């Protein structure tokens, strides 16, 4: 007979199981194997259905009381090790029936045990994670090693004095030190290593020149050509300023302006384009930001 692979036994087959077990269950040595010849289900599936649902002596609707729960925990702890970690559920169910006079289903006992075990494991994992987090939180952080060593800086200076007039000078140095990109080498040179750089703070005349130059040359999309600004500053004041110094000054000033409640007329004209006549003179920071967001569809 073909054995069904369906998860649930149909009601007609359940009636056959119930009738056979009540009439022949106690006299047959293997009633489930005999039943598997009468209905299209395996002996294992028939047994599971009987011991968990169909046995009329089962008490499946009443939850386990505290005494039964304590008994299950102690029994498993005492007998699991002696059977190499395997739990003999049939024996446990017989013990529960002997002590409490209640026939519990195998599923009911298993569900309780594994639910308790899962909660216990989660609590242990949570406690372990908290300990690890605390140890990491108070662990002294190691200082980051500098990106460029003195040795690398000296070599970049030597190669720039040799190849600085070439258009691919940074790429040639990158081939000598492949752990650094050509962009990193360029930034290091134009911001720190170029001997022509002036590292003194910007004076007031330079600051005014920067603001006015950006106002006159900034594109529609607020793009600033920093290389051209550096060249213009050098031509006007005879000082070579680094790109980082100019950027830091500009964005710091812009942030300070926007952080004020009201923007002065001078700063308002600098920050906003010429076609922003619909913003009142005493526009607040929030009004300007909202206007800019709507203009660029942010």
Automatic annotation (TrEMBL):
SUPFAM superfamilies: Homeodomain-like
All residue ranges annotated as the Myb-like domain in the record: 5-56, 60-119, 198-256
Superkingdom classification of source: Eukaryota
Protein name, per record: Myb-like domain-containing protein
Organism, as annotated: Rhizophagus irregularis
């Amino acid at each position: 007979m073909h054995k069904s692979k369906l998860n649930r036994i149909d009601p007609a087959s359940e009636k056959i199981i119930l009738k056979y077990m009540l009439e022949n269950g106690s006299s047959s040595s293997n009633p489930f194997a005999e039943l598997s010849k009468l209905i299209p289900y395996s002996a294992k599936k028939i047994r599971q259905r009987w011991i968990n649902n169909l046995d009329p002596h089962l008490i499946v609707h009443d939850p386990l009381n505290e005494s039964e729960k304590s008994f299950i925990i102690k029994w498993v702890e005492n007998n699991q090790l002696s059977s190499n970690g395997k739990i003999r559920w049939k024996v446990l169910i017989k013990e529960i029936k002997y002590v409490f006079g209640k026939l519990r289903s195998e599923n009911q006992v298993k569900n309780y045990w594994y639910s308790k075990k899962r909660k216990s494991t989660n609590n242990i994992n949570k406690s372990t994670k908290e300990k690890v987090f605390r140890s990491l939180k108070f662990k002294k952080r190691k200082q980051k090693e500098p990106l460029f060593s003195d040795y690398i800086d000296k070599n970049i200076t030597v190669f720039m004095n040799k190849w600085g007039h070439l258009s691919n000078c940074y790429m040639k140095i990158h081939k000598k030190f492949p752990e650094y990109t050509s962009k990193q080498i360029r930034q290091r040179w134009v911001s720190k290593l170029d001997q022509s750089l002036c590292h003194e703070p910007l004076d007031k005349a330079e600051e005014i020149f920067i603001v006015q130059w950006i106002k006159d040359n900034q594109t529609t999309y607020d793009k600033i050509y920093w290389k051209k600004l550096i060249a213009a500053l050098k031509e006007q004041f005879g000082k070579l300023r680094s790109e980082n110094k100019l950027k830091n000054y500009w964005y710091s000033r812009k942030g300070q302006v926007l952080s004020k409640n009201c923007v002065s007329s001078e700063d308002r004209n600098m920050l906003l384009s010429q076609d922003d006549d619909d913003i009142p003179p005493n526009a607040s920071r929030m009004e300007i930001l909202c206007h800019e967001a709507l203009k660029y569809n942010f």
